Structure formats: C-alpha cells, structure tokens
Amino acid sequence: MSVAKKEYKRVTVRSLVEMKQSGEKISMLTSYDFSMAKIVDAANVDVILVGDSASNVIAGHETTLPITLDQMIYHASSVVRAAKRALVVVDIPFGSYQGDSKEALRSAIRIMKESGAHAVKVEGGAEIQVSISRILEAGIPVMGHLGLTPQSIYKFGTYTVRAKEEEEAKKLMEDAKLLEETGCFAIVLEKIPAKLAAEVAKSVSIPIIGIGAGGGVDGQVLVVHDLLGMTHEFNPRFLRRYMNLYEDMSKAISQYVDDVKSKDFPNEEEQY
C-alpha cells in the first residue's frame, strides 16, 4: 500500500519526524562534492549525508579514521552549495568529539558555521552522551549512529554484523532510547539484525534509518558510490547496485584513449 507523500520545498529535522509518523520512508544518500550532490538533490533524496566515508571512497584510506575536521568541512561546504531541498547532515570525524565535550561542541560549531550544514552525526551511545548534550544545548541538531560504528573498527576488529548476541542487542536498544531522550532527531542503525532494527524503530518516536538493517526501519541510507557501482570491489549483502558505472566509465575512458591515439579525436566538427 503506497503512502501519500507530503511535498517539502526544504526537508528539515521536523520533516523526518512527520515522515515517520505518516509511514513515509526516508531516503538518504551520501555525497561529498558539488556535482554529485546536485544530482542527488535534484532526484528528491530527503537527506544528504556528508559521510566520513569520504575517507574511503574519495581519499582511498582503509578506514574512516584519517579524515580530518577541515577536510569534512571542505566536503560539506561543496555539498551545501548544491543542495536546495535535502537536509544536509555532516559526520563529525574521529577524534573531534569522543574524549572532550568542549571539543565536540567546537567541532560541531565549526561544521555548522563554516559549511552551512543543517545537522551533525556522531557514532556511539551512552559513552558520548555528554558530548551530544553539549552540542544540542548550542542549538545544533544531532543524528546518532549505532550498531556497526566504523570509527570504532579497531575496537571491534571486524566489519561483521553487530548486536547478534543478547547483551549487545540489549545495550543497543538502551542506547537508542537514550539518544532519543537526550534529544537526537534521528538514528542510523548500521549492519544489525533486521528483527532488532525493527524493534528499535517501534520503540522510539524518532526516525531510524538503516544500512544493512532490514526493511522494518523508517528509512534507508547507502553510499552513493556503492549504489552507482563505482566501488565495484565492495559487495555486502545489503547493497543493491542500481548501475555499473565502474564498467561503463572504464569503457568510456578506454575509448577516449584509443580515439586520441588513433587521431580520431578531435574530428573537424570538434575544433574551432
């Protein structure tokens, strides 16, 4: 059964709550530059996440840990200039909020002031509650992130599914409720059992957006490079590829090289 969609000229944190209440699913994709964000925004994606996954897909690092606050602000600024409808959420990078709530506030303020973004996202639950509270007290909207938290990869040691065991599942549920009570406007759940994710979504009033968390949540997020098939070596179960740009782009670039070498490009109509 389809749900009647409300038209939003600009998606806000309040819009996402309204979507959850009406049963409309929330669409969320990453973007890291002006050109991609312009395409994503024009397609009516509800939320654009300027993810620290830029560390992987843009900079080529193995993890999200190396990307800096300055680099995140640069990417976010580029995206904000393109986004006319979508809510723009920016990851606060590793090391910029975990240990010191004052530093967390400074980081969030820099992102908001220097990029023009609409909200920030942080990974973790009870252990970062003080940092979240301080950011919220400054009037900055915060999105939470539980389950597989890539900034903690060296703690987990693997990117495997999280919260399969009862104890970890219980803590995740507690953290989700805590994030709601603290004031987060939404939570991303990454790579956890679908049944647990659905239970979390029913237990809180704020939107739950999943990645590898099944269809029982309030919305979905993917890395745009994965969705478009540009990162062809990454093949998790939760990923649906809507294009195979790696293959198409490789063919196009190879054809360009051949045309230049053979003197076919440029032809007489392609010069002045």
Automatic annotation (TrEMBL):
Catalysis: reaction(s): (6R)-5,10-methylene-5,6,7,8-tetrahydrofolate + 3-methyl-2-oxobutanoate + H2O = 2-dehydropantoate + (6S)-5,6,7,8-tetrahydrofolate
GO MF, any single term: 3-methyl-2-oxobutanoate hydroxymethyltransferase activity
Keyword set includes Lyase: no
Compartments it resides in: Cytoplasm
Pfam family, one: Pantoate_transf
Positions of the catalytic residues: 190 (proton acceptor)
Chain sites annotated for binding Mg(2+): 52, 91, 123
Enzyme class, first EC level, given as a word: transferase
Cofactor remark from the record: Binds 1 Mg(2+) ion per subunit.
Binding site for 3-methyl-2-oxobutanoate: 52-53, 91, 121
Major place of residence: cytoplasm
EC number of the protein: 2.1.2.11
InterPro entries assigned to the protein according to its UniProt record, in alphabetical order: Pantoate_hydroxy_MeTrfase, Pyrv/PenolPyrv_kinase-like_dom, Pyrv_kinase-like_dom_sf
Keywords on record: Cytoplasm, Magnesium, Metal-binding, Pantothenate biosynthesis, Transferase
Cofactor dependence: Mg(2+)
SUPFAM superfamilies: Phosphoenolpyruvate/pyruvate domain
UniProt keyword Magnesium, yes or no: yes
Pathway of action: Cofactor biosynthesis; (R)-pantothenate biosynthesis; (R)-pantoate from 3-methyl-2-oxobutanoate: step 1/2
Family: Belongs to the PanB family.
Subunit structure: Homodecamer; pentamer of dimers.
Functional summary from the UniProt entry: Catalyzes the reversible reaction in which hydroxymethyl group from 5,10-methylenetetrahydrofolate is transferred onto alpha-ketoisovalerate to form ketopantoate.
Record-given protein name: 3-methyl-2-oxobutanoate hydroxymethyltransferase
